[in-house]
Amino acid sequence: MRAILLYILLLLMAKMVDARNITVHQQSAIRTIRQALALAKDGDTIRVTAGVYREKGLVIKKSIVLTGINYPVIDGEYRYEVIAVRADAVTIEGMKVINSGISSMDDFAGIKIYNSSHVIIRNNVLSNTFFGIYSQLGNNCVIENNQLTSFSKNEQQSGNGIHCWKSDSMQITNNRISGHRDGIYFEFVTHSIISRNIAEKNLRYGLHFMFSSNDSYLNNQFRNNGAGVAVMFSHHVTMLNNLFTQSWGDAAYGILLKEISDSRIESNQFVENTVAIFLEGANRIKVQKNRFQSNGWAMKIQASCMDITVIGNNFLSNTFDVGTNGSLVLNTFSQNYWDKYEGYDLDKNNRGDIPYRPVSMYAVIVERNPTAMILFRSFMTSLFDKTEKLIPSLTPENLKDASPLMKPLKL
Amino acid sequence: MIIATNVSKQFGKLKVLDNLSVTCNQGECIALIGPNGSGKTTFIKAILGMVICNSGFITFNGKNIKNNWQYREQIGYMPQIGRYPDNMSIGQLLTMMKDIRSGNENGTDEELFYAFGLDKILDKRMRTLSGGTRQKVSAVLAFLFNPQVIILDEPTAGLDPVAAEILKAKIIKEKENGKLILITSHILSELDDLVTQIIYIQDGKLCFQQSVDALQKTTGQIRLSKVIATIMTQNLLVP
Amino acid sequence: MKYVIIDILRNKIVLAYTIFLLLLSFMLFGLEDNTTKGLLGLLNILLIIVPMICIVFSTIYIYNSAEFIELLVSQPLTRSRIWLSLFAGMAFSLSLAFLIGAGIPLLIFVPDITGITMLFTGLLLSIIFIAIALLASVKTRDKAKGIGVAILLWLYFSLLFDGIVLFLLFQFADYPMEKPMILISTLNPIDLGRILILLKMDIAALLGYTGAVFQQFFGTLWGQATSFIILLLWTLIPLWISVRRFNHKDL
Keywords of this protein's UniProt record, alphabetized (chain C) (predicted)? Predict the structure, then answer.
């Protein structure tokens, strides 16, 4: 085993020694990238100088490095898939890819990885592409420091920023994605890490997760996307240190969790979302150390959820803390700070002595009759809430935090 | 000067003024008398435009007073109970009234003001004044702008005898100045030296309007209270 | 007229009202570490206490000045002018009280669009309820009855109306009620003011369901202008009716 590895390593080194540089320049003999690709061998580096290249669909079938100098523009003329990668260990960097084809039949992309591994795509600028960077059956690929901008008007006519399908061990790091349908789209992707990306102003979701398990996303910012972030039909997903903000609208959520199990949501910030976390059919989710601030609803937990543990979070200035549609509650709330808590702490252990009920009566009313929202904060509704606190009738009996904190946690 | 023609006023079902017609001329001092609830005050309020007649009309110097307000420049009115904004001082009240009647061309007459000694308590708030002092303020205001017509509703009620005498003297003086003065009072004795004419109203109807001289002749009595009593008992209703 | 203003400003109740508002606002903002809670408390004051004080105080003031009004009527002044002066005097004094009592804390602690919207709404509500008080007191002669009517009106606008609306909402739960609701909300100045503030404060939640409809109407410049015009109408129409009534009233 070790011998084989050594052999590969030697082979690689031999190749590197052997590697050549090919420069593409519009005033030289090698005027197009296509020409360079034809000349290149595995391990070569193709240097592309600044200029506009209309290559009518590049296909990379060799393990080469494609480097742009001063961001040469590769124009897909709205008709082609701009760059297709069909070889392992390809690196594409410093390119400016624009105007990919748009089709409802084919998933045209700015850069598309077909069934390859160890592909690195970094420091590129993609503008006005249908799909941005597309990985189909890729594994161990790195997509980092790219900037993806599109100008889609509606969901039908737009593709996703970074789209991964049936891929594994992907690293999506430090990209900026805006104006696409979904910022980052994962379907059947496993063992991958999404970190330090910024997805904003995408039409649908900032991040869209389907059937993808054992993945983590860390330190990302999701801002002002049409419907926030959706995580569906997956398990063992870790969400840490992300910022979810300004997901505003009828069906917009900071995170929409649907059929998710065994996952962690920790140390995230949810600010100014219509619904910060929406859970439907979720099981065994741990929500910990998050900050919920100025959201319409901090959490909406449908009755189909079980074993959701909400511990040690700060709930600040939310219109409603928790909303639910049923009366049966199989979830645990404990040791959170609720700014609406009005209890007292006689034994000075920094835990309130009476439980806090995060579902207000009016939240229940609004759940049943959404238009009633127009009466919110009127004298009558505050009376309702006050009476409900004294004599609970409409709100679920078991949904309570038995030991609410008196002071906010430092998060 | 003031002519009321067929004036009627109803408050709900109650007829307060019923087809009342009177004429009041300059230089007269007319006493409006009648039992309680006979409609005296309502009639005064009708003249002042505070009550709006259901039918009939009132003219002032030949002009209908309906929808007219300038004629009130020529009227000084002293109400039965004078109440003023609590937090205003006498001085402020006077300044305010002067402001309101800044269009007044008759000059001001501050005789009563000094006679009542109000100049010494200019800074007192209205709230702190006694009923009598308030009456004094009302009287001062009625005469202040030298109007052609002065209407006094129970002027001496609540005034101390000294002040009442001062006021009477003032009324006589103004009558001699050729002003029309209308007085209502229950206390007939104090009207004795003042009035030249009597309008007697009962149940909103005019019983008679006669000069005091003529009345004294027909009844053979001199004192006003006696005159009225005689008329009442003998039913000498003079048309 | 300036004399009404002088009189009211010297009034102990107005002074107390100012101080009460000031203390309460500072307390609300001072005690709570997040301004949202303070803002909420102030919102309750603005929607409940301010209209109540305005309507009750104005009604009592009108009745207490009945004789003074009589005196003024006997003067060479038009009745409309007297009545409008009264209104202007009260509107100015109570607005000033509100500005000092609630405006200063608002501008110190929440100097953003929410604070300014609250300030404007509070001012408009003060003026509207003075106009309504004028209407209530011109219609009833008896003082006790007049004050009773004023309190009932306040109760209606701050509580009963919403109760009826909620009842209607559940009765007609199967129909799309969003657009009729916009119309209904214009029938109550307190509701309209509250929605304007809500749109600034709870924008996220409002966008939840029906929010889109509300936002489309109230959120646009046109909708906000309409709302403010409707609030102004709420001042002008009662005022106008009361002036007409007062012009024909027997004193």
Answer: Membrane, Transmembrane, Transmembrane helix
